[in-house]
Amino acid sequence: VLIAIGRDACTRNIGLQTIGVKINEKNGKVPVNDEEQTNVPYVYAIGDILDGKLELTPVAIQAGRLLAQRLYGGSSRKCDYINVPTTVFTPLEYGSCGYAEERAIDEYGKQNLEVYHTLFWPLEWTVPGRDNNTCYAKIICNKQDNNRVVGLHVLGPNAGEVTQGFAAAIKCGLTKELLDETIGIHPTCAEVFTTMDITKSSGQDITQKGC
């Protein structure tokens, strides 16, 4: 990655100061509560303009739909900004859903987490003889909540497809036990999440000898 450029929030010249809507002066983004409400009760904001939220089009669409349902349809459902599946479509894809390990530690405390991880070798890499320890998978589990999966990360082929499927399970309260009880489809990359048994805290070797 040579350079990564984010979006600018062009909020300084649209009259927000006239009605008293506060913005983050550093980036122009708008702080909101968990219902996308600004400091001015009748003004709401959604999408990339939100301070500290994900700049993803599907997130904005979901948030807007749920906001409309709350304002006009009697709903109480709020947008989940944590369990959002996303992927970086680099030549070796990276997919994630839920907390990054560092954020999970901040949220739950390191002593309350168990991290399972492994390197893996996709079957299609065996023919050209590509490095069998380039792909990586990790789940972060909350020990205080039945080892519920609070973060899932994968670096490998088709990471977007893999992450999208597991995202639904995470929304349903996926636990490490449920993953262990799930029969994997062999030989797929996603299968690795059903066989993970090495914890990061153990310090054990996670390199693989084959697919």
From TrEMBL:
Its cofactor is FAD. GO terms for cellular component: cytosol; mitochondrion. The keyword Oxidoreductase applies. It holds the Pfam family Pyr_redox_2. InterPro entries: FAD/NAD-bd_sf, FAD/NAD-binding_dom, FAD/NAD-linked_Rdtase_dimer_sf, GSHR/TRXR-like, Pyr_nucl-diS_OxRdtase_dimer. Residues 84-196 form the Pyridine nucleotide-disulphide oxidoreductase dimerisation domain. This is TRXR3 reductase.
